[in-house]
Amino acid sequence: MKKFLLIAFVTLIAGGLWSYHSYPALGHLLYTASMAGEASIYGFKERRVDIGELEMSLYQGGNPEQPTLLMLHGYSADKNVWLRFAKHFVDDYHIIIPDMAGHGDTAFVSGGDYSITAQSRRLQGLLDALNIDQVHIIGNSMGGFISADFSLSYPERVLTTGLVDPAGVNSPEPSTMQKLLAEGRNPFLVEKRDQFREFYAMTMAKPPWMPGVVLDAMAEDYQQRRTELAEIFNDFHSTALLEPRLANLRSPALLLWGSEDQLIHVSSVDTWRAAIPTLEITVWEGIGHMPMLEIPAESAARYQQFLTKYSESAQ
Description:
By secondary structure, the protein is of the alpha/beta class. Helices cover 45% and strands 15% of the residues. The protein contains 11 helices and 8 strands. The chain has helices at 2-41, 83-86, 116-129, 142-153, 176-182, 193-203, 212-224, 226-236, 268-275, 291-294, 296-314, and strands at residues 45-50, 55-62, 68-72, 94-98, 135-140, 158-164, 253-258, 280-284. An 8-stranded mixed β-sheet has the order 1-2-4-3-5-6-7-8, sandwiched between helices. Strand 3, helix 2 and strand 4 form a beta-alpha-beta unit. Helix 1 (2-41) packs across helix 7 (212-224), helix 3 crosses helix 4 and helix 6 crosses helix 7 (212-224). The radius of gyration is 21 Å and the shape is globular.
């Protein structure tokens, strides 16, 4: 009987250890498989492109004979956040969705420079490597900051500029995240699983459904990347804000925002409007920081309307 109890106890402990270590791995597997499946269904292929200083991972899809849409994710995110938005453009556009340096499957290198200026320069290298002359560029959050900076730094490469809850300007009212930062706490730098759940709730007002095992795997990923994310955050936030330069923006521009954004307060819309009088603006009530993921069809329809308007005016 004692031998049986010992075997049962050892089995129970072994099973518990297996579950503890395999649970996040299962979540990573599910997430990776589901994203790869979606990308394939929408006709996107993953590839790596050498731009000299590094290899950038990206999705490429759509119609290669048509104008190029370049879609940029935000800080700590990756190329997958654009898939459900991008699928609406595959018939009429060539689409590039890169993992920015230090994100997704594009390597992080300590001391690699993750400022907005450096990220824009890498995009220039990416377009050169792909032999793409001009793009319609659209970015979310940090990606919106990069989109605006790229449009100002390389105006000859940009047809239109799309900005989705972008960073890069002063916010008249502080967001939830800004208040936390003022208290000395960066919600992106996760130490515990429950901290990730709190942070994740800040990123979207209407997030798509995600299994708990996947969320826990994402939490583990944020925990493991904490040091890397801190360095990227510091470089990202060392970049000068855009207000003094925005009057020089030459490309038609569209600003999309969610009224319930907790990361960058919606009052930032007023700053962008004052700096770019010709800016087209849409604000959705009840939506958070990532409209392209929360309401992909509706936000894609608005972006398509903008693209159609300026494509026709250019003819």
